[in-house]
Amino acid sequence: MTTTHVPDAAAEPRPHGASASARVVPSDRVGHIETHGIETVPHADRHGRPSSLFWVWTSANVVYLYFVLGGGLVLLGLSIWEALAVTVIGNLWWAVVGWLAISGPAAGAPSVTIMRAMFGVRGNTVFGAGLGVAIGLFYEIINIAVATLAANAMLALLGVDLGPAGGWIVLVVIAAVSFVFGVYGHATILALSPYFSAALAIAFVVLAFSVLGAADFSYQAAPLPDGERWAMLLLGYAIIASGPLSWGTGADYARYLPADVSKARVAWWTALGGFLPAVLIGSLGVIAATAIDMTDPQLTIGEIVPAWFTPIFLAIVVLGSVTNNVLVAYSTGFYAQGLGVRISRAGTVVITGILATLAAGWFVYVAPSFLDTLNASLELSVTVLGPLVAIYAVDIALRRNRYDARSLADLRPGAPFWYTRGWFVPGTIAMVAATTVSVLMANTTLYVGPVAAALGGADLSAIVGPVLAGALYAVLWLTTNPYRDRRKRPAAASIAPTAPTAATAPAAPAAIIDTDAAASARTQEEPV
Questions:
Q1: Global pTM value
Q2: Which tops the pLDDT comparison, 520 or 151?
């Protein structure tokens, strides 16, 4: 009887850009810089429980941004109950983020590596790594800008006169603090996330008492024509959905878990960690909009909270933005490695962080309206993020979450995920077609697509884009080689521990490892 053997660290290939030190130095230790990059995490380094993912995602999502977005729904003209409903429905996308996370333990690799399976080696540099870097930088910029504005307001409230140079110093310090945790990596983030979550949650609970005490539950939004109301509902949905849709990186934080971990628990704790704070804080922003002007809540919040709490509120805005930026910076480093740069993960975090810091300075001190720019950018980001996340989610379902780490690391022509000249036709067509349709349907303050204009301003991009991408990808996947012909599909087979590495092995279709079979094999072959 033949059993499936999962290669150990020595037998696993080192992909382009991977650090040789990852083979001999323990990678995942608190207070030490993580040495693993986009390469596969060896099974000897796998550890942890799915419940730890809850704290990682909670600490990253107890953020002021959701408070602003919730209030923004009321500014669009929605009633309280409409805004609350949109907040809940838009955040249901967290269930999909949880689903994406299960691919991490299966492959032992970050999302940018796994996406080679759906776009091809070359296609992934555009749709996976390329878009990932752009999106990651965008959210890093948002976090630095929001934190800097809050810090400036807090210092002004305390009577500290910064001056122009002082403002830039604050921005640089905030950026440096958020990026240093991203440099240290997975274990340090995991260890600190419960403490960040607790501190932020306590502060938001205090804020909730003030908001609920000042809320005007009899608030009535100005009447809108039926057509315009539906347009605002759909626009609000697109803005809220942009939050969870920006996290197509769930595998990054789950990849250290053992391959035989419960997929349901990985999905549940990931989704719950993002959904709960997003909905609760977004709802708090909706209610606050009935009592204060949410066009500038950092200043008007002082109208409903005790004077002593105002600087604390601004401090939690800073802390929440920093904790969110930790995860964003961590994943952006992986995406940058996915571009093929020969730089360590820690190095790419630093480089992308410097770029984001410079851009954030422009948003804070040069851009005419940060809030308008933010809303328009979030609305447009859905046109790309929705299709990308949908294709990823469908690929997991079609493959039954079976990803071969060895094949994903093989970047040579003729490798299993090289496909056609480095591109996977189904993923490429689905992504381009769905994104194009989404852009035509988008309705933002800076751009209105022709389809949205024809529909009276209704923005269907956050609904049609993901549905079209997922459906088109599934149809093409099932009707395109190598998956149309079952005989040409990579078949499950055993991999000997002495198998050739990616640098010397012949370019033949590699095995897709069934994680359940791999778990069974470890039980038989490894000492307990």
A1: 0.80
A2: 151
